[in-house]
Amino acid sequence: MAKKKLVVLTGAGISAESGLKTFRDSDGLWEGYDVYEVATPGGFAKDPQLVLDFYNMRRKDVAAVEPNAAHKGLAELETDFDVTIITQNIDDLHERGGSTNVLHLHGQIFQMRSVKNESVVYEIRGNINLGDLAEDGGQLRPNIVWFEEPVPMIETAVEVMRTADIFAVVGTSLVVYPAAGLVNYVPYQIPKFIVDKTIPYTQSLYNLTAIAKPATEGVKDLQELLKKYV
Ligand code: APR
Q1: CATH number at residue 26
Q2: What is the per-residue pLDDT across 112-127, written as a single tens digit (0 to 9) for each?
Q3: Whose CA is nearest to atom 13 of ligand 1?
Q4: In the chain, where does DSSP find H-type helix?
Q5: CA distances to 81, 192, 207 from 230, in Å
Q6: Are residue 137 and residue 60 in the same domain, yes or no?
Q7: 47 Cβ contact partners less than 8 Å away, ≥ 6 residues apart
Q8: Which residues are registered as beta bridge partners of 143?
Q9: Taking the complete model, does pTM exceed 0.85, yes or no?
Q10: Catalytically annotated residues
């Protein structure tokens, strides 16, 4: 019998216990930086090296940490379910934690591209600096979706949501669109779960189980609760 489709939408909260800052918690990334300055096309145009350095630092941060029990727990669910992870995170902790089907809505920190062409993507482990050019002569930039930029994978994500038999949200404040709007595309009656240390407002998601715990504990509870759907 085919495995049930489990779709999991994740955000910065799932990587918090690995040691990566979230955005909107106290001491979050957006407390230390002006979002406009470091995560918009306007900011990049104004001071490209500042933006490149912001992501050079985040690339170092991600390289220095490990996936946590929440990432690994979601990967373990692939034994019994057809799992798709739709993440807003630019880190590679889902992949390093063992998940094999990950869709990055906001890009990936170890990828870069030319400012001229978003379809040719290069791997990058070190720094990108002003003057580093792609083959097409364009300045290289992180392959990250900044605010005010379109989210190329959103249509794919919507289609994945529509096919879900079970839906879970882990570690996102659900305040950034279009990602947050994905919760409206899952079939109305399917079982839904939210794992977050502080459950975010979710209008009126039907058939919802809220697990108000840190992700490393809450995902273990989720794994237990999902056993009855195998
Ligand atoms: N365990 C579970 N949940 C946690 C934990 C934890 N240890 N720590 C924080 N959280 C939760 C917070 O309660 C919050 O709901 O994770 C969520 C983090 O929210 P944000 O900081 O807003 O991160 P996220 O939702 O991923 O932001 C979405 O905004 O800045 C843009 O592009 C960026 O992808 C990002 C998007």
Answers
A1: 3.30.1600.10
A2: 999 999 999 999 999 9
A3: 198
A4: 13-16, 29-32, 35-38, 41-46, 48-63, 69-76, 93-96, 154-162, 215-226
A5: 7, 15, 18
A6: yes
A7: 37
A8: none
A9: yes
A10: 106
